[in-house]
Design brief:
Two copies of one chain form a homodimer.
Chain A (H helix, E strand, L loop, with lengths): L1 H20 L4 H17 L1 H17 L4 H7 L3 H16 L7 E6 L5 E8 L2 E6 L4 H12 L3 E5 L5 H15 L9 E4 L4 H7 L8 E5 L2 H10 L12 E5 L5 H13 L8 E7 H17 L3 E4 L1 H6 L5 E2 L13 E7 L2 H11 L4 E5 L3 H10 L4 E6 L16 E3 L7 E3 L5 E12 L3
Parallel strand pairs in A: 3-4, 3-6, 4-5, 7-8, 7-12, 8-11, 9-10, 9-11, 12-13
Antiparallel strand pairs in A: 1-2, 2-16, 14-15
Helix pairs in contact in A: 2-5, 2-7, 3-7, 5-6, 6-7, 10-11
Chain lengths: 419, 419
Amino acid sequence: MAVEKHIIKMAQAAKQAAHELSLVSTGTKNAALRKMAHALVRRKSYLISENKKDLKVAEKGNYSKALIERLRLNDKVIKEMAKCLIATAHLKDPVGAVLTSFKRPNGLLIKKVRTPIGVIGIIFESRPNVVSDCVGLCLKSGNAVILKGGREAFYSNKAIFQVLRDALQGTGVPPEAVYLISSVDREAVNVLLKLDKYIDLIIPRGGEGLIEFVAKHSRIPVIKHYKGICHVYVSDHADLNKAHNICYNAKVQKPGVCNAMESMLVHKDAAIRFLPGMVNDLKKAGVEIRGCPVTRRIIKKGIKKASNKDWETEYLDLILSVKVVAGTQEAIGHINTHGSHHSDAIVTENRKEAEEFLKSVDSACLYVNASTRFTDGYQFGFGAEIGISTDKLHARGPMALEELTTYKYLVFGKGQIRT
Amino acid sequence: MAVEKHIIKMAQAAKQAAHELSLVSTGTKNAALRKMAHALVRRKSYLISENKKDLKVAEKGNYSKALIERLRLNDKVIKEMAKCLIATAHLKDPVGAVLTSFKRPNGLLIKKVRTPIGVIGIIFESRPNVVSDCVGLCLKSGNAVILKGGREAFYSNKAIFQVLRDALQGTGVPPEAVYLISSVDREAVNVLLKLDKYIDLIIPRGGEGLIEFVAKHSRIPVIKHYKGICHVYVSDHADLNKAHNICYNAKVQKPGVCNAMESMLVHKDAAIRFLPGMVNDLKKAGVEIRGCPVTRRIIKKGIKKASNKDWETEYLDLILSVKVVAGTQEAIGHINTHGSHHSDAIVTENRKEAEEFLKSVDSACLYVNASTRFTDGYQFGFGAEIGISTDKLHARGPMALEELTTYKYLVFGKGQIRT
């Protein structure tokens, strides 16, 4: 009950602060972002010492090496966080932009203008730099934000948050526009998800369990940042050299992220030419291959049998499922059925085939002759990102400043009435 | 359980049909809309005789006159329904439109294009013309639709739906792209709201009870079409003649709709000049006035005392709450606190004051010197509308074809990989 009361008070104050923030000038917001960036660098030894407490728990708890690395704060990571805040200050303020403007026959002038959404709740796991990235993007887009991190980064999140909030004092941006729920219980999330009176949007970023819990219990609109089961389809019309480079990059360059390839589909007429060299290089890079029966007939040794579950698994690791398909239609059907509608690529030199793929695959980002690894706000030129939406509503794919806004219609009249 | 199985089958078939429909050409969709329009007119005697069954139940059940009128199908209403389908055929197809297109320094060409959302569930009450309006807009925007109407229009909804679906045969638009759940139990709604695997969006249109039920139980994203507690604020800088006409129009012209004024706010320095004449004319039109203490001091007779509940009530009737306020800030605070973020107006000749109002009031549509009654897809020039969203996410205010779409990013490369 104490937690519940505390979170309700927080949400009420955030709502009030969101209203104030919606009226704050771009210059004031930018100055606040710069002040926060400098504060992070100035107080880095404090941040690193708090981070050590989390690392100690993680090491004792036998967390995976990858997770411990994601948790670690050092000079370089803190500088990156500060740089991201400065970069966000340089981005164009989306608030107030006129999206369309038109005059009606009765003389009414209608303008559709961007406005902040209001109060945004972000529920995330592991990486503590999410705190500063999200605070920066939310404040710049005029939104208040309530953060809820995971148990594994308890001390780090709290320290970063405190440094950022302290820096807001006297900037003109109300410090009540940013909150961190320090309780690590899922019960706190459950309380948050019921506060549709004060909170306008929930963004969950994390594992399957978290996302499903949020989707099930939220009374607030949710934009899910869910898994990426990304495919590359190598057509029989592919330039196999390009295909080789793209598949290698999509799997090997950074396997632990949502835009990495998890499943490779190969046209039956390209398979014999393409697979042996490809599989050889992937194996050299340490990739475990799980193949369909045809794949295992072409490459006799060292390929595990792919189970049905493999086609729907986000490995986030050096593992790849491989399937030989009869043609583009089978590839499209497989991706729409087993994928997660995140990022999928076709490698082909046939324009008509590419168009068919682009039209029929129901994913946020579709690639022709390029690696799926480009699905990223920075790579798209958005400057920064809050994450990658796997939902279809409001925002899809990389989410940055514009995606954190809504709009309202302003109608200018001279006394018009409806007849 | 039989109902549940039936609805799941429906949703699965709709999902498959949505995929097929997303590939159908504009010309084919338009021809299907025209064929549906002609079928409605040709089979009007069947529609009217089925409608009589609903009217009979309604009359026995002592439904309000207004409700019975909303239910009634006659020659004129059926012609209007057909006209709306024809008009929708004339609207520009939103699918495939390129929203932005940009090239990245590494040569990647990125296009953001509109696509259908997928399967849309629409849960509505009373007016049977919703069936044809929604079928027309959803099909034109490439979406499959599952409709669930209210008990009061059981026979009418079923008849209209059957005529429309029969008309789809042989058009190239799959008939499985439209479904009507004929069960009138709320349990059927509950089943529908859990099918996030197949359904992409739920739009509830109706009373408070329905909207709250949907918001509470849905696992699918919801865009609510909720109540309109609309305000007109008459400033001390208003042209009082304009103010008089606007307030009269907003309250009296069609009091039973969501964009009608429910609360009138008047600046204290304008109240003595403005209120007596205004109240007099409203009373002549049969409007019951519920006033704040100052209002009742200015007009001594015939004004009921407004309770706190009045400020948050959507009367949908010839009733008006009236409050005298100290200035623009109080008006803004009152609207943001007690309103429903639908449509609110200021009457003023002072540009700075108007700007303050437009910036600070958190509503979908804001008016300067015009009646709130213009919040309507047709009045905004959108050709038709699925309704008025009172939510902030994905779509806000009048929703038409564009608001029924999402987008995807198409990325064209020449073998680019991420380094």
